[in-house]
Design goal:
- It is built from 13 helices and 10 strands.
- By secondary structure, the chain is of the alpha/beta class.
- The chain has 2 domains: 91 residues, Winged helix-like DNA-binding domain superfamily/Winged helix DNA-binding domain (Arc Repressor Mutant, subunit A), CATH 1.10.10.10; 184 residues, 3-Layer(aba) Sandwich (Rossmann fold).
- The strands form 2 sheets. It has a 7-stranded mixed β-sheet, with helices on both faces. The chain has a 3-stranded antiparallel β-sheet with strand order 1-3-2.
- Strand 7, helix 11 and strand 8 form a beta-alpha-beta unit.
- The radius of gyration is 20 Å and the shape is globular.
């Protein structure tokens, strides 16, 4: 019996704590151990039991393994049915509330870590970018798929490499980045660009109003997002109906060294995974193109529209 199977998997306080967090966030084993103050061996055992029962999904990203609540099948339906009870328990139980606060701290820490990295390497960004991309320039590929519009946003604009190019398609361009040093570099490179509005902010909580722009771009920035699915949901929020979203990023790879060299959080993405997240964000008709770099890495360029 499926119900008995689920009930046995949840018949442990630690596994309930894990499910309470993982139905809201996707976290690695190490992050869960730190946030919930668990022993590594015990956490791994409990996660395995929940995953084998179909209540959790495991996703490997290089050497890291991330867990989240089941996103499909009977397990998803069971977790969805439990969610009101988990919410009520989290409101009433200080321990569960503390777990959720710790998980939120982990997510905030991911953003802070990214900002620190890019503040440190801002002055070397041109060299690092050339080493990674070789002679490839993303601008022509992006502009060929971007509609003319009143306002566009470059999400994770970094040093502003793309901003001036976007002005050929948009009357105004908003550049968002969480690194003050990178934004200052972009500002120095665009001293006369009065149509560019640079804003300090996080991809998870974009400093833009709902439906503020008609086009948005993630150009090699989504793999730095603490939670790519939430970043795409935020992009969907700021887009006007019928607006276009363009994503240029790596397909999944195993180049673990890029985490240290370039501050990458995710080692690329599966195109179908991106499409699933886009659909959840209200963005469809995702057409894609693949581009192979001299380094051997492959890029995927997806264009989608908000319904």
């Amino acid at each position: 019996m499926q119900l008995l199977h689920y009930s046995k998997a949840l018949a442990d306080p630690t596994r309930l704590r894990l499910l309470n967090v993982l139905c809201r966030h996707e976290l690695s084993v190490n992050e869960l151990v730190t946030a919930l103050r668990l022993a590594q061996s015990g956490a791994s055992r409990h996660l395995r039991i929940l995953a084998e029962a179909g209540l959790l999904e495991a996703r490997r990203d290089g050497q890291w393994v991330f867990y989240r609540a089941a996103a499909e099948g009977p397990g998803r339906e069971f977790v969805a049915a439990l969610r009101p009870f988990l919410d009520a328990d989290a409101d009433a139980d200080p321990g569960l509330a503390a777990d959720l606060a710790a998980a939120r701290e982990v997510m905030s820490g991911r953003s802070a870590e990214s900002a620190r990295f890019f503040n440190t390497i801002a002055q070397d960004w041109d060299r690092l970018r050339h080493e990674l991309l070789g002679g490839f320039d993303p601008a022509p590929e992006i502009l060929a798929r971007m509609p003319a519009c009143a306002a566009a946003a470059d999400l994770g604009c970094g040093a502003g490499d793309l901003l001036k190019s976007l002005l050929s398609k948009a009357s105004t361009v908003v550049g968002v980045d969480n690194s003050p040093s990178m934004l200052e570099l972009a500002r120095r490179r665009l001293p006369d660009a009065k149509r560019v509005d640079l804003r300090l902010g996080d991809l998870m909580h974009l400093p833009l109003r709902e439906a503020e722009v008609q086009a948005a771009v993630f150009s090699l920035s989504l793999h730095h997002a603490p939670d790519p699915a939430q970043a795409l949901a935020e992009a969907g929020r700021i887009l006007a109906p019928g607006g276009a979203l363009l994503i240029l990023d790596f397909t999944r790879h195993g180049r673990e060294e890029l985490r240290e060299q370039y501050g990458d959080r995710w080692l690329g993405f599966d195109p179908e995974e991106l499409r699933t997240w886009l659909e959840a964000a209200g963005l469809g008709d995702a057409a894609s193109t693949r581009i192979t770099l001299l380094s051997g890495l492959t890029l995927i360029l997806l264009s989608a529209r908000k319904s």
